[in-house]
Amino acid sequence: NPMLRRLPVSQMRHVSEMNYDEAPELLLKSARLNVSSTDYRTQALAIVAELGYLALAIDQAGAYIASGECYLDNFLDVFNAHRQHLLANEAYKGASGSDRAVYATWDLSYTAIARQVQAGANEALRQGPRAALQILQVFPFFHNEGIMEDIFRFAAENSNRQAGTEGEADHGFSSFLLRCRPDGKWESQSFRQGVQTLLSFSLVGQESSGRRFLMHRLVHSWTFDRLTVAARGRFCNQAREILQRSIAWRFTSSDYTFRRDLLSHISTAQRRTSPKEGIAEFALAFSEAGRWKEAEELEVRVLQTRKRVLGEEHPDTLTSMANLAATYRDQGRWKEAEELEVRVLQTRKRVLGEEHPDTLTSMANLASTWEAQGQDVEAVNLMQEYADNGSIQLDPNTIPANSSSSNLEIASDDLFQEDVRSLSDRSVSCGSSSIEVLGFVSTKIREGREEIPTVEADIVEVPQEDLSYASKKKSKKSKILATQAIFEQD
Known about the structure:
The chain has helices spanning about 1-5, 20-30, 40-50, 55-65, 75-80, 85-90, 100-120, 125-140, 150-165, 190-200, 215-225, 230-245, 255-270, 280-290, 290-310, 315-330, 335-350, 355-370, 375-390, 415-425, 435-445, 470-475; strands at about 145-150, 205, 210-215. It has a 3-stranded antiparallel β-sheet. It contains 22 helices and 3 strands. The protein is mainly alpha-helical. It starts with a helix and ends in a 13-residue tail after the last helix.
């Protein structure tokens, strides 16, 4: 590694892990305790596991126990309460003669990287170290494993696309990592050089794919603990924004997979801070994973913020209300969902008109909620109104002879199934509103009833929250593939 050749040996600090047998023995020797004691070994195993089998940290812990500051059996309690003090205090250097305490060792590496930024003769030499320092600002707020390069790529390209400009979008905080080329693709060189710098100091590891990275749990803790309270708030917000921007309102199979892999990082970022406002993109990821309570909490915050800032009748506020209703439905909280959906439908009818696609979305969602509660007559009536306004018709062959178009009667559940089947058969040809029909149909499938024919359609990108979010989530759970549904643009 060319980077390593430029560094003095004293500045190269590697994170070495010990094996299961060696680690407790080192701890007990450093603590000056009997290594043959079964009880001591059992307690030592719990400690070394918490320390990630890291030799320097184990050595440090043993020195601390030997100093009389704590006992072997209460070390973990003390450690969790005073981690930064234990790992960085020069008074408790490792019993085996390590020249610096553990955190101080990594601080030396940080200082060496910062020095490279200052000493670089040109921008090319400064680029890697500078990117490395920026990465160390946001990685503490991701999970320490499975950090995907795609997080930064998607954040850059999605932001650039939304900005509607070529080249660099306005990211403010970390534009150096999120720059795009004139063709709108992510300029990955800075990020990769930064990662290579961190790899050379063993501050990060690389998974076999080469596109995912990890940090030892104690290195990860160090990157967080070294920040001031003010810096933690600032960099956590930056990390949350990168995560938010990495999520696009697209619904291909790869999009679902990416959002699933992002969950651990979203959870870590949320846990590291106490945000007052919700992020709709995070709610989408939680909802798709079936983590309804977390999705609900975020959606409530988003709705409250939009009511306050945008007003009760703003389209984005109504979108948030519909999304919260969808989450209520997923939890079987039909009455709460119905209450919100009625409000959304009434407002959209008044503000947008009865034939507006967003109004039709609301009709389909409310009809789905009514049908789930056994209110089949109301549901079919509303779907007939939907069909009339959307210029599609129920198949008259499936309507009982004694029924009128204004008051469809349900002869049996099988007949109702045929009614919605005919809607599905026509869904592709009914324009931008076809997804609502799919959402309504999928309710029956989710309950384990008869399967309907697969519907072929195209995917379109949705840049903001999708007003058919409720229908999307239903389609994902049904036997209709999510990649076959048409989603509206907000």
